[in-house]
Amino acid sequence: MTPEQLAAQLRQPSGADGATVAGNMNTSNQPIIANTYAALTLQGAERLLEIGPGSAGHLPTLLAQAPDLDYTGLDLSADMVKAADALHGFRPGVRFTHGDIRQAPLPENHYHGILAINVVYFWQPLAPALHAIYRHLKPGGQLCLGLRDQQSMSTLPVFEHGFLTYEGPDLMQALADAGFEQPAMTRHPEDSVSVLGQVMHKTGLVVTARKPESQP
Q: What is the pLDDT of residue 101?
């Protein structure tokens, strides 16, 4: 695949190449997945929406964090929804749906937590996606975003095609502008193998924020 073709598959995996890319992402993204999961403050029997889970290879780890978790996975790729459902659709309280967060037919003021890992790059423009997430969160609900910083994303040609990158503080400001409160960020240095099989020295960011308990 050319860098441009790979970028398209990273955004919306499809077909045989998409299945391969999704499998590689489950491996290469393990550090940022683990760090983002650790930032979640889930209790038992809460509702969580994950945006862009792909084939949801790490879902068992997430489900182990909180008993009786009600999980919805929303993905832009119909192929990934099908693959995730085949792997995990039998699990109680787990469902997958196809759609774009900006237009998804999801309930408002509903989710205790919303999670997105290595997806924020594709929300262009950013504000409509953040406003949609805000609507779907319950008052007091938590948003967790896992991503690689701008410097890490500049190391491979693939990231020149359709990726909007962040340093961290700029994303926190966008969250505040969208009405979220308590934006916070942690940095996580990591060495990992990229989807192209190259060892990369990267910095993962986990950005969290909450929807205010009381609405204006």
A: 96
